[in-house]
Design goal:
Layout: E1 5-16, H1 22-37, E2 46-50, H2 61-64, E3 70-74, H3 80-93, E4 99-107, H4 125-128, H5 135-148, H6 153-168, H7 181-186, E5 189-191, E6 194-195, E7 204-213, E8 225-234, H8 255-267, E9 276-278, H9 284-293, H10 302-307, H11 324-328, H12 332-348, E10 362-369, E11 373-380
Parallel strand pairs: 2-3, 2-4, 9-10
Antiparallel strand pairs: 1-7, 1-8, 4-7, 5-6, 8-11, 10-11
Helix pairs in contact: 3-12, 6-9
Organism: Mycolicibacterium sediminis
Keywords: Transferase
GO molecular function, one term: acyltransferase activity, transferring groups other than amino-acyl groups
Length: about 375
């Protein structure tokens, strides 16, 4: 029996603000994935689901069908969807089931990612004195990285402007209006060097991906996309970000570095083989940092790459072609599966105005879940 796992269906509920529950959005994403794969819910043998706001995302089954399937809920901060992806793929590789679904859904209130620190086993005074306002940690991290590698603040504006432009081409994005680099630089500084329009926003949405055994894929689609690797890693040393007022910021301490290296090894490829990438851009600085941490470039090369347009849709290293988090916002449970939706559309050649030219064959998705969990997933034809 083959050990390959193929994605045969993807579905997404638009990201933004809606008068419906997160579970309802999840059901719509599932129906979209089923339609894409030409399947019925009764064909799905198991599922993994993730959410930050919904304690039991398995309740989505009451809206799509109570078929008695195995369904496991997962949570790993911003790496929640990646956890659902990994577990779904690995369950199929183990041979227990032939076909399964990963679904992520969330509905966040307006504002920064402050919420209830008790959800991460933290005392309430973290929130009361501002220590759980994650944006300040993003600012500290970006500030040090820019200083260490001689990268200008204007490069952060280029990242955000690029993602807003891409989001304008994405009918499922939250923010669909381009914002110029000048306007981004003129927006209020929230956590230096990060300005208002350099951040994503918590919002609402859902996404789902159906996978099956690789040798069965052509029964369902003429364009299977294979999950070559899905790796999750945590820190090996140092304090976890967000949980402490200081943490090592050296690249070698980042779990993204470990996850990406493991994924490349498992897939048998290198970063030079990646045709299109989806990187965690909770803020513009994060995208810059993750470009290097995933091996797509060396530390400090980002300034020239951005200036030369390398990360644009038509560039040599397209990043966040759907607008990333900056344009889509981040419903935590759905974010990583949104990345899968975009990569599958790109590799199939179905991304419309956002389509990367030259028939891309390899896609990389990376997410970083505070306080210190990262994932790297590699897809290919």
């Amino acid at each position: 029996m083959t050990n390959d796992v193929a994605i045969i269906g993807v579905g997404i509920h638009p990201f933004g603000r809606f008068e419906k529950s997160a579970v309802e959005m999840g059901a719509e994403a599932i129906h979209g994935a089923l339609a894409d794969a030409g399947l019925e819910w009764q064909d799905i043998q198991f599922g993994f689901g993730g959410s930050y706001e919904v304690s039991n995302p398995d309740s989505v089954t009451r809206l799509v069908g109570l078929t008695g399937i195995t369904f496991t809920n997962v949570f790993n901060a911003c790496a929640t969807s990646a956890s659902a992806i990994q577990q779904t793929a690995d369950t199929i590789r183990l041979g227990k089931y032939d076909i399964g679904i990963a679904v992520g859904l969330d509905k966040h209130p307006r504002g920064a990612f402050t919420d209830d620190p008790a959800k991460l086993a933290l005392p309430q005074w973290y929130a009361e004195n501002g220590q759980f306002v994650t944006t300040k940690f993003f600012g500290m991290k970006a500030n040090k990285y820019l200083h260490d590698h001689n990268i200008s603040e204007e490069t952060l504006a280029k990242v955000a402007a690029k993602n807003f432009r891409n989001g304008a081409l994405n009918p499922n994005a939250f923010r669909r209006k381009p914002i110029s680099e000048e306007d981004i630089m003129a927006s209020p500084v929230l956590n230096y060097p990060l300005r208002q329009f350099m951040f994503c926003a918590p919002d609402e949405g859902a996404a789902a991906v159906i996978m099956c055994r690789g040798d069965l894929a052509h029964q369902y689609t003429d364009k299977p996309v294979f999950v070559r690797a899905s790796e999750i890693r945590t820190r090996r040393f140092g304090a976890y970000e967000v949980h402490a007022t200081s943490a090592p910021l050296d690249a070698d301490s980042s779990p993204t570095v470990y996850a990406a290296k493991a994924a490349y090894e498992a897939a048998g490829i290198g970063p030079e083989d990646v045709d299109v990438a989806q990187l965690q851009d909770t803020d513009a600085g994060a995208e810059v940092i993750h470009m290097a941490e995933t091996g797509l470039c060396a530390d400090g090369d980002q300034e020239k790459l951005l200036a030369d347009g390398a990360t644009e849709i038509g560039g040599s290293m397209p990043v966040n072609t759907d607008g990333g988090l900056i344009a889509n916002g981040e419903p935590i449970g759905a974010s990583g599966l949104r990345q899968m939706h975009e990569l599958v559309r790109q590799l199939r050649g179905e991304a419309g105005e956002r389509q990367v030219p030259g028939n891309p064959r390899v896609g990389l998705a990376q997410v970083y879940g505070a306080p210190g969990t990262a994932s790297a997933t590699i897809l290919s034809l």
